[in-house]
Amino acid sequence: MELQERINAFSKLGSFLSQFSNSPYTKEDTVEANDLFFDGFKHQLQLAREHNGWFTKANLEYALDSWSKSLNYSNIKSWLSKYNFKKVESKTVAIIMAGNIPLVGFHDFLSVLITGHKVLIKQSSNDRHLLPYLAKYLETVEPNFKGKISFTQEHLENFDAVIATGSNNTARYFEYYFKGKPSIIRKNRNSVAILTGRETHEQLEALSDDIFRYYGLGCRNVSKLFVPKGYDFDAFFKAIYKWHNIIHEHKYANNYDYNKAVYLMSEFEMLENGFAMLKHDENYASPIAVLFYEYYDSADSLRQKLEQDQEYIQCIVSDTFPSSKVHFGETQKPQLWDYADDVDTVEFLLKT
């Protein structure tokens, strides 16, 4: 199977997914194998929503829209242009996927197949409806994928390398269990934003998308703010108001009410606006509906702290801070070449 055939198949998948990025879903006659898969995928989306209350229609559509834009022919070609695929020996790569946001493990799935390997997937119970169906679509538009994609809920066996994503606790288990295999092991990470007090309303509004998209459940979601001493949060609260309707989502509201009650009973100081709470805290991983913040004295001292804590941080969001790689509003719009934990998955797979 040639690289060009794999690229063509995934670009066809991108066209298929583009039909589900906005409601109402519109069936396009030009999409290959649409008669076989269009109605079935609508059903899978419904099952995903029923199975996981965090997978709302809006969140599913946002994820599908993002992937449909990434999986276009020119974008895939640009992503792969720097790699050498000439000496790849096909192996079986196992992927243990998280389930915090829709299709969160898709980039690993794509990377394994696009590099010419077979993939053995163990999905999270929270997100098991979409990817097997999309795998069937790939096998239909490119029959050479048949026999290269398998799923299991049992113990992983007969694989040559592994990519595993989990909590800090499960990562320790992964490191022990897979110590004899080439591996990428991912732990808990969160994203931070750095504010100066000079941000515009539009910048802070964009930042609210980084905070609230997917209810803040993704590692690329901003869970902590670094602000200068004396920072006035009024402008911030005004800007994030665009997300105030999130409190009407019952799972989010339950978390908000619970965490607020805990903080009040513990007599923690906090700021809140009816749908989000701000708490001064040195940790990075904040609960749902809570955003931690911490003061910094200078850009140099903050830069040093972030370098020391880099193993806990996925994205640094700012339009001015020198070490930032992500602008406000861009955390949930990663490119194919934006690798989790800054570990080049494709390079790893080509050397496996």
From TrEMBL:
Keyword NADP: yes
GO BP of this protein: bioluminescence
Pfam families xref list: LuxC (PF05893)
Species classification: Bacteria, Pseudomonadati, Bacteroidota, Flavobacteriia, Flavobacteriales
InterPro entries referenced in this protein's UniProt entry, alphabetically: Ald_DH/histidinol_DH, CoA_reduct_LuxC
Signal peptide start-end: none
GO molecular-function terms, A-Z: acyl-CoA dehydrogenase activity
Name under which the protein is recorded: Acyl-CoA reductase
Species per Swiss-Prot/TrEMBL record: Winogradskyella aurantia
Keyword line: NADP
